[in-house]
């Protein structure tokens, strides 16, 4: 089926951190800050997929 082979239609997951502790949590999980909005972070989907692959391979 074509849907099974399709690439995701998104580039990144975006979060708005509520405080510095939340920022530290997200950065620990490889999220990156936006230069123009330091309380907003993003995680490229490719990074998330790679991390899930490592987790499933244990």
| Tertiary shape | flat
The residue fraction in helices comes out at 40-55%
End-to-end gap: 29 Å
Q: What is the string of SSEs from the N terminus onward? A: HEHEEH
- What share of residues are in beta strands? 15-25%
What is the makeup of the main sheet?
3 strands, antiparallel
* Oligomer designation: single chain
Radius of gyration: 14 Å
Mean pLDDT: 87
Strand order of the largest sheet: 1-3-2
How many beta-strand runs? 3
| Number of helical segments with 4 or more residues | 3
Category by helix and strand content: alpha+beta
Give an overview of the whole structure.
- The protein is an alpha+beta fold.
- Helices cover 43% and strands 21% of the residues.
- The chain contains 3 helices and 3 strands.
- It has helices spanning 2-5, 20-28, 45-56, and strands spanning 12-16, 32-33, 40-44.
- Strands 1-3-2 form a 3-stranded antiparallel sheet.
- The model has no long low-confidence stretch (mean pLDDT 87).
């Amino acid at each position: 089926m074509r849907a099974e082979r399709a690439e995701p239609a998104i580039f990144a997951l975006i979060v708005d951190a509520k405080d510095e502790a939340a920022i530290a949590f997200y950065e620990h999980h490889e999220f990156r800050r936006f230069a123009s909005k330091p309380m907003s972070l993003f995680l490229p989907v490719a990074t998330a997929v790679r991390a899930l692959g490592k987790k499933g391979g244990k």
